[in-house]
Amino acid sequence: MIGGEKRNNLYDKALEFAKYIVILTRNLESDGKEKELIKQILRSGTAIGANVAEAQGSVSEPDYISKMHIAYKELIETHYWLELLTVTGDLNIKEFDKFENLYSELSKILYTILKNIRSKRS
């Protein structure tokens, strides 16, 4: 653990996902792939963890909810870009499956958090 701050499963999975995104984009850049697409997937794929981290430091419940919701939306966007890279042949199925497993885990965690907050507020 870097910096000694308290981390949790969601944070760790989002960090792992972002790590794979950074590695993927480096590989795509070195292969001369579409630069705008690389920027998009790098932005959305790393924003997930950044928003989770910000949520953990939020000062209010609405701020926390907003950050978690943004993280969830960024995750969905990143999944789209990964699917696009796969159907264009820039990402092979084995690589996609690695992301798909993490996507599924992150999606379930974020969805559950948001659902529980909605239930609590009702």
Looking at this protein, list some descriptive labels.
de novo design (two linked rop proteins), mainly alpha, elongated, single chain, 0% strand, 122 residues
How does the SSE layout of this entry go?
Blueprint: H1 9-30, H2 35-56, H3 61-87, H4 93-121
Helix pairs in contact: 1-2, 1-4, 2-3, 3-4
Outline of this structure?
With 122 residues, this protein is mainly alpha-helical.
Report on this structure.
With 122 residues, the chain is mostly helical. It has one domain (9-121): Up-down Bundle (de novo design (two linked rop proteins)). It is built from four helices and no strands. Helix 1 runs antiparallel to helix 2 (35-56).
Compressed to H and E, one letter per element, the order equals HHHH
Portion of residues within helices: over 70%
Query: What share of the residues does DSSP label as strand, in percent?
Result: under 5%
State the domain count.
Answer: 1
Q: Helical region count?
A: 4
Judged by helices, strands and strand pairing, the structural class is mainly alpha
The CATH superfamily appears as 23S rRNA-intervening sequence
Query: What average pLDDT do the residues reach?
Result: 91
Low-pLDDT stretches: none
Based on the coordinates given, report the CATH architecture.
Up-down Bundle
Biggest sheet overview: none
Which of globular, elongated, flat, extended, rod-shaped describes the shape?
elongated
Which class in CATH terms? Mainly Alpha
Overall strand count:
0
